[in-house]
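Sequence only, no structure available. Ideas?
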Amino acid sequence: MRTQFNFRAVFLLAAVAFTLFSNCSPKKEGSEHSGHEISENTTAPAEETTKPQFEVDETFQKQLSAVFTSYVDLKNAFVSSDAGKVKDEARKTAEALGNVDMKLLSGAAHSDWMTYLSPLESSLKEIQASGDIEEQRKAFSNLTDNVYKSIKAFGLGGKEAFYEYCPMAFNNEGAYWLSENDEVRNPYFGDKMLKCGEVKEKLQ
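Reply:
I predicted one. C-alpha cells follow.
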C-alpha cells in the first residue's frame, strides 16, 4: 500500500521555517534589505495569563509595577544598543527598586522577595558599572530572571507583562526578556535581529 505524500503539510512547515530564518538572521551591512524590517514576528500564541502565587498588598504590587515600568525602559535602551542610555535606565530601575517596601509582605511572600531582591540589586549594579553593551546584556539576562520570578510571585496589580525568548542569544544558549506587550523587540541583538523571538508566557 502506497503512502500518500502530504504536500500541504510540507509547504506549511517550509513557510514556518522560512519565517523563523528570516526574522532570526542577522542583517548584513549594505544588503538590499538592510533598511527594511521584515514585518512578520515569530510571536507564538502566549499561554493563558499566569496568576500570581501570593495575594499581597495592592501598594506592593504598584511599587513592583513601577519597577517593571523602569525595567521596560531599560529593555528599550538595550534594543537601541545604547550603552550610555542603558546605564542611565539601570540607575532609574535601581531607584524604583529602592522604593519597594518589603514591610508590606509577610511570611513566605517576604522570604521569597528577599531571595529575589539581592540578585536584582546586583544585576543593576553590574549594568551600571560596565560600558560594554554585551557585558551589560549578560547582567540584563540575570536581571530578567528575577524580575520574572517577582512578577510570578506577586503580580502587577492588573498590568500585563509578556515573557519573551530568543533562542540565538549568547551564541545560541538562548535568553529571555519581559515586555509590556506581545510585540517582539529583541534587546540582545537590537536592529541586527530586531524581531527574533517569541512570546512564551503572559503574566499579570
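The longest strand covers residues 161-166.
Hope that gets you unstuck.
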